[in-house]
Every structure is written in C-alpha cells, then in structure tokens.
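# nightly structure sweep
# worker-07 picked up a monomer target from the shared queue
# config: single-sequence mode, recycle default, output format = structure tokens
# input follows
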Amino acid sequence: IAGRLKSPKTGRSLPKVVSRETLNDIFEKLQSNANPENPNGLRDLLSIELLYASGCRVSELVGLNLEDVDYSRNILRVMGKGAKQRMVPFGQPAREALDDWIRIGRNQIANEKSGQALLVNSRGQRIGVRQIYALVASLLEGTPTGVAGPHALRHSAATHLLDGGADLRAVQELLGHSSLGTTQIYTHVSVERLKAG
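# output follows
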C-alpha cells in the first residue's frame, strides 16, 4: 500500500521579477545606445520595451510582422500558444521606440531577406529567440535579479500591473493564459513582495 502513495507536489517556485528601479536603469542604458548611428541599439530598446509593455512571450515578439502593429490604437496582434491570436496594448515609451526603429533603424538594415519581419538582425533576417535571450541576460547580469531570460520581463509586467491594481482577468487576457490559475501565480508574487517590503 505504501508503494501507491504519492508524495505531495512541491509548490511552484515564484517567477523572477525585475524591480522598477532595475528596469529604469536598464531602459536608461538602452536609450543611451539607441541613436540613428546605431540601428541595433534602436532595435534592442524596442525589443525590451515591447517585452515589458505588452507582456508578450519571446516567441511572440520575434514572430511579429509589420502588419501586426495597429499604430492608431497602439496595439499589437500577437500569435500565442496554440495559434491563438490576441491583441495587446503598449504604452507611449514603446510607441516612441517603435517609431524610431521603423523610421530610422529598420531602414538601415532591412534587405530582401527581411520580408515583413518587424525585428531584424544586423544581416537583415528576422531576429531569433536566442538573440533576445542573450540581450536580456546581458542586461540583467550584475543586477539584483541576476541573469534571467525574457520571461522575467513578462513576469515583471504582470506583477507590476497587479501591484498597480489591475484586474486579474485583464492580466490573464494580456498574457494569453487559457487558465486564470496560471495568472494567479502573480498574485502570490505581489503578496510575497509586500511581505518582503
């Protein structure tokens, strides 16, 4: 009988959250590198702005095409898990980074290989997931968060929204979670941060 007993599942570890202070430092660093002479700097700033502003997954970010941006409403159409489309809003800082990238940066490096890809690498090809992982890891290295992947920005977006009083269902929709239970992990993060504060 004892052989049939299962040990209880251990609790899920809480996702890493990047503090607002660390994010401010990261955005300052990115903005100082984002200028017309450095199209890759413009792209890097936009990549991080969109990851944080929209809470999208890294695969959704690199999959964005030019026509997926609704400039009139500051909304992205992202293709999520299970080929589910959703619309996600983004704010003014991301809009400014987007305008600079489209107007100045992308034009400098886009070529016949670029197609409709929103984000392209220095060879003009659609940017890859690994390049975004490397960018985020380099930005978080040496910060209190420590090296982490792009998902840390998704976690941070959700947690900061909930900290600011956003509705759990609205955050669920933004993140594209099929289950509210998946989104509820962020309420635990907010509570843990309140306890620690």
